[in-house]
Amino acid sequence: MKTSIIGTGLIGGSMALKLRKKGFTDYIYGIDKNEEHLQQALDRHIIDEAVSLEKGIRNADLIILAIPVDAARKLLPSILDQLQEHQTVMDSGSTKAGITNAVKDHPNRKRYVSFHPMWGTENSGPVSATDESFTGKAAVICNREESAEDAFHLVERAAQELDMHLIYMDAEDHDIHTAYISHISHITSYALANTVLEKEREEDTIFQLASSGFSSTVRLAKSHPEMWVPIFRQNRENVLDVLNEHITQLRKFKSALEKENYDFLEELIVNANKIRGILK
Q1: Is 144 within 8 Å of 116 (Cβ atoms)?
Q2: What is the pTM of this model?
Q3: Nearest to 6 by CA among 66, 49, 52
């Protein structure tokens, strides 16, 4: 089994490390526009060889597309143009409807499996990749009926080798749910970080007083715009819908404080505490 990783950063690099460790793949090609990332991936034995896109597509049994969602949406059709019947391509993007719609009428559509490993950090690059990143996390396969059986089963087996538990979902539904559980969290973190930076000019004071709670809340604000602007662009309508609801909830807290209505404030907090029963 030969695998090509297009995008040797955090996600692609972590997948490569684990799939190699589990013996799922024998040889890994790396494709990346970032020469520094390619060298780091070679140095860390994430990949065996840095190659051109054409060679990586031609020689691999499985091609993993681990680049920002806008770039993946543009590149996938040309990858499918070059695929043979025995080859499979999967992506790892956080939005699925845009990319599945981009290739829905492609003659080689069945060689593509829409995949989202539900894991990520604020860090980036091959230096941040680890072989246990995905252990115990959820993996979503979208629109499975649109993929060939052998391609679907190969990606299913890859997810199992990553030690992930699989969820099957429609691409449109996936994007709605991720807007709620992932995308809004990043916007909130960016907004909070900007709020603090605007109001608290003494950066040393922030560093000295920052508690673990504050640090964990704004951790996502360290995430790179190269990845997240395309996600927000691809999932714009769903993110706006969630953001409007979030603003409504913030206004309730603001109103309770303005009116010194602490009973209402307590109701809002008690209602929020219900999340304990969902998130253990």
Answers
A1: no
A2: 0.86
A3: 66
pLDDT per position as a tens digit, 25-58: 999 999 999 999 999 999 999 999 999 999 999 9
**CA 56-162-22 angle, 5° bins:** 75
Quote the CA–CA distance of 130 and 279 in Å, as a whole number. Answer: 25
Strand order in the sheet with 88-91: 49-50, 27-31, 2-6, 62-65, 88-91, 112-117, 138-142, 165-169
Residue showing tokens 């860390």: 44
d(CA 131, CA 270): 39
Dist. CA 187–CA 204, nearest whole Å? 24
Token pair in block for residue 37: 């990332």
Q: Which of 188, 195, 245 is nearest to 219 (CA)?
A: 188
